[in-house]
Every structure is written in C-alpha cells, then in structure tokens.
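User: Reviewer 2 asked us to show a designed sequence for the structure in our supplementary figure. I'm pasting the structure tokens here. Could you produce the per-position amino acids so we can include them in the response letter?
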C-alpha cells in the first residue's frame, strides 16, 4: 500500500482537515485545545507511516514553511480584530508590558536552568534555546479564549500577539549576537524596528489605495501574496517582518484612524469594508488549514520516547514552574487579584517549534533533548485546558446561582402577591 501516492495524499490531507474541524467542535465543548489533538493525531500517523514506509522521512522543511505561513496568518488574523480606540490604549499598553516582562523573565529563568542542567551548553546558546520556550502561542490562545469575558479575551489576544512578535524579534536579536561583525547592538536593533515600522506604514497605505481600485473579484490571494512577499523580502534584509504584517492588519482594521480628516477622501468605504470582511474570512480559513497541518507534521516529526527521559522531565518541570511563578508575580502587579484563569493561559506552540528549528548550526547543542520542547508544549496546554474547564464550571455555577436567586425571588414575589390578594379579598368580601 503506497501511502505517498498522489491520490492517497489527497485523501489523507482531506481526512486530516475534516478531523481538525471535528477537533475544533470538541475543543469548544470540552476546552481541550484542538492543537493537542492534532499533535496526538500526528504521533499516531508517525507509527502508521513507520509500518507502511520503513525509510525515515524528513519533515523539517515542510514544517518550517507551514510555520512561517501560519505565523503570518495568525498575526494578521489577530491584528484584524484589534480596535485602536482611546479607551483601549491602557489595556493595550498593559498587555504589551505584561508580554514583554513575561518573555524576558521566563527566558532568563529558562536560560539559567538549561545552562545548569544541559552539559556543555554555553550561556549564549542557553538564551537562544530559552527564548522559544518563553513565547506564548497565539495559535492556541486566540481560538481558546472565545468563551471568556470581553475584557479578558481582548487581554489574551493583545498579550499573545505581542508575545509572538517581541519573542521573534528577541530571538533574531540574539542570533545577531553570534556574529560580532553583524551585531549592531541595541541602537542598531532600535533602528531596525523603526525602519520596519516606517516600511510597514508606507506599504499599508500603498496596498489600501491600490487594492480598493482593483475591480477583479479574485484579489484576496493577490493581497496575501503581496504580504508574504513583503515578509520574505524583509527577512532577507534582516528586518522584523512580522511588524509589517501587524501594522497592515491594524491599518485596514482601523482605516478611519489612519486616514483622518481630509485624508478620508482617498477612501472608498464600501470597497474597503468588503476587502476587510473577505480578508478576515480568508485569513481565518487559511490560518485554520495551515495550523492543522503544522501541528500534525510536528506530531509526525517528534520522538515520543524522549518524554520518558528523567532529565527531560526534570528540566521541563523546572522551566514550567518558573513560567507560572513569574507570570503570577507580573499579573498580580499589573492586574491585581482577579488573575484567573489568565494565570494558567500560557501555552507554548507554533512559534516555539518554528524558532527551535531556526536555531543556527553554530549555536546548536548536541546534548539538548528535543523532548523538552514537546514536554513544555503539552504540559502548558494541559494546564490551560484544566483552567478553562474549571473557569467554565465556575461560570456555570455562578449562572445557576443567579437562576436560583431569580426563581426564589419570583416565588417570593408570587407568594407575596397571593397573600396580598387574599388579604384584600378578606377585607373586601364580594357581595351577592
């Protein structure tokens, strides 16, 4: 049986997408992240493939491409949902601060743990390995928090998106430090960000003005192709390309803010609304498909036996403990006492895997067990699942209590009404 023939691959890909859609339905009912189910599916397929295809298959190239496209789609999807209003400035800045402090604090703690427990690991490599493990996964968080209150849901969308972008920027800043000739320090890094923001704004204005004039119906994939092109070219010039994607999403989602006053005459509102609506749908759909295959391929490529290694378990548990310890302190300072379930919504996922495979050869440590990656991803996802289920039960209990109070109040009112009526009837008996 040739599992890798053209028709079999089409059948397999179609079944995976159908299963992923089903997993999403299960996830909404149980709060178990669908990505965990996709990873398990990939692990099962790994053993099926080993039975039918004995030779070793290399999925690293496909995983990288899927990860990059998925990352772009997920950040664009998140940006399209962010409204930039004056009243939301404080929540946005607060989320950004929490994401930045959580990223740096978790990376510092994880780097110290890796430096101490992984043999022959220099501190510079430890920071490179620790950074992917410190980035929140918007790919897991955004689809999982739809049931939370608007305030908490927006916080997680902002925080996870900022964590993705700042984590990637930090990772490539650390890579720049490996080559002293290419390392321009903090000033050069800040200049890089500023240049990227300028390019992002110019490109966003140009894309909006040009695309609203295109009459063809088939222009959405052209727009996505332009964004992918900008991202890839930006990467070639060592820019923080994800910032370009974020800026474009923010501009098209908040055109009135970016085209104020007389600048609004350049806008064709009906066409822009249509482009925004269609782009939102196609981004959502594309992110779903890419995320599906990314996590299945990740499950296909991991060594499940490494999870049962004592050193892997010890290092992973220490890293996970620092993640939640640091997160607790930061949330208490910035938010106060109402930090549930936010405290436990800190899963690692797509970015973690993607950046792990992007670690340069000169920084790779042979003794590092990739099982640490899998352990942290699965454990943080399970913790989030537990917290979401607990929060859902708590919410249901609160609603039940409200319903009970409402029913009791209605019963008391009915009894009072009946007694009042009886008293009235006794005082004013009907005459024949």
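Assistant: Here is a per-position design you can include in the supplement:
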């Amino acid at each position: 049986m040739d599992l890798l023939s053209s028709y079999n691959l089409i059948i397999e890909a179609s079944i995976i997408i159908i299963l992923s859609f089903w997993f999403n339905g299960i996830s909404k009912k149980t709060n178990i992240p669908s990505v965990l189910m996709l990873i398990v599916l990939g692990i099962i397929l790994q053993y099926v493939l080993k039975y039918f295809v004995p030779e070793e298959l290399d999925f690293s190239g496909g995983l990288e491409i899927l990860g990059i496209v998925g990352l772009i789609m997920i950040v664009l999807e998140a940006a399209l949902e962010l409204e930039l209003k004056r009243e939301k400035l404080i929540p946005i800045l607060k989320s950004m601060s929490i994401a930045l402090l959580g990223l740096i604090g978790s990376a510092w703690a994880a780097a110290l743990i890796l430096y101490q427990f992984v043999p022959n690991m220099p501190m510079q490599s430890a920071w490179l390995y620790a950074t992917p493990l410190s980035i929140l996964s918007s790919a897991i968080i955004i689809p999982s928090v739809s049931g939370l209150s608007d305030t908490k849901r927006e916080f997680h969308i902002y925080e996870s998106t900022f964590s993705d972008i700042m984590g990637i920027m930090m990772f490539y800043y650390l890579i720049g430090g490996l080559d002293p000739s290419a390392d321009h320090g903090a000033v050069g890094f800040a200049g890089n960000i500023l240049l990227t923001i300028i390019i992002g704004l110019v490109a966003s204005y140009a894309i909006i003005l040009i695309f609203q004039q295109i009459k063809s119906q088939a222009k959405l994939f052209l727009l996505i192709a332009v964004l992918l092109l900008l991202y890839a070219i930006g990467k070639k010039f060592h820019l923080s390309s994800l910032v370009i994607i974020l800026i474009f999403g923010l501009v098209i989602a908040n055109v009135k803010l970016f085209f104020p006053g007389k600048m609004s005459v350049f806008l064709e509102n009906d066409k822009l609304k249509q482009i925004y609506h269609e782009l939102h749908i196609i981004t959502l759909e594309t992110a779903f498909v890419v995320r599906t295959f990314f996590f299945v391929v990740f499950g296909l490529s991991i060594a499940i036996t490494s999870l049962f290694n004592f050193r892997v378990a010890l290092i992973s548990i220490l890293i996970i403990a620092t993640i939640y310890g640091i997160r607790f302190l930061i949330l208490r300072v910035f938010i106060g006492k109402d930090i549930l379930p936010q405290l436990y919504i800190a899963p690692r996922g797509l970015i973690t895997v993607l950046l792990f495979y992007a670690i340069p050869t000169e920084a790779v440590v042979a003794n590092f067990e990739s099982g640490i990656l899998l352990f942290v991803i699965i454990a943080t996802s399970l913790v989030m699942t537990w917290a979401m289920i607990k929060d859902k039960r708590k919410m249901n209990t609160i609603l039940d209590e409200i319903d009970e109070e409402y029913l009791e109040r209605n019963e008391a009112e009915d009894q009072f009404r009946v007694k009042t009526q009886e008293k009235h009837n006794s005082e004013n008996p009907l005459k024949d």
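For the response letter, you might also mention the following. The two ends are 95 Å apart (CA to CA). Confidence is low (pLDDT under 50) at residues 398-402.
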